[in-house]
Amino acid sequence: MLTGKQKRYLRSQANQLKPIFQVGKDGVNDNMVVQIEEALEKRELIKVSVLQNCMEDKNVVAEQISTSANAELVQVIGNNIVLYKESLENKQINLP
């Protein structure tokens, strides 16, 4: 689990990131989770955008993704979800 200080740091790092995944009306599927896991391994910190036509609540989507991908949910802001997972091979972010 992340501390408040670590979450603040990650939020500041995620500020300039653009969403690299979009969740649409079909919601979260297995293929998307696999791709998100791969992206987290490469980048450690990513943003996922929840589109207007998504039938599920963005907080439910955030929980689904973070649980399925074994990632930490850093924040849900607007329609964006910020996820963090420490990389095994490409460690780039040093948490405070």
Automatic annotation (TrEMBL):
Residues 1-96 form the CRM domain. SUPFAM superfamilies: YhbY-like (SSF75471). Pfam families: CRS1_YhbY. Keywords: RNA-binding. It comes from the Bacteria. This is RNA-binding protein YqeI. It comes from Oceanobacillus kimchii. The gene is yqeI.
